[in-house]
Design goal:
Length: 121
């Protein structure tokens, strides 16, 4: 599977089905007295429709190659791990400040390095 749009659609469908099945464990109620499962079921239904539309669109358009930027994935994962650790052993404000600054600074640095290398060549 090398089509990015098809992979996105399948991922959206998987998320929608997992949350939709989870929402079925709660009472639905009706629209005048909504139960705790109604809103998650409605949101997952919309997400399922978007996923199906993305899959159908990917079947009729040109395939788009899948590309993973491992540096950005690493920065995001490191910032989330740092946020979790600082929130657990410090406090939530410290973890949130770290998450925001760690996500912005390395990503900006990576973009700057990439543009400066491309301009040098």
């Amino acid at each position: 599977m090398s089509d990015r749009n098809l992979l996105k659609g399948i991922f959206l469908i998987a998320i929608a089905l997992s949350f939709g099945v989870g929402a079925l464990r709660y009472s639905m109620g009706d629209f005048s007295q909504a139960g705790p499962g109604l809103f998650p079921l409605l949101v997952s239904s919309v997400l399922l429709l978007l996923g199906l539309a993305t899959v159908i669109r990917s079947l009729v358009t040109e395939p788009v190659a899948i590309y993973f930027n491992t540096k950005n994935i690493g920065v995001i994962l490191a910032s989330l791990v740092g946020f979790a650790l600082l929130s657990e052993y410090g406090n939530m404000i410290l973890g949130s400040c770290f998450w925001c600054s760690a996500r912005r600074s390395p990503a900006a640095l990576i973009r700057w390095c990439a543009t400066s290398r491309s301009q040098a060549h």
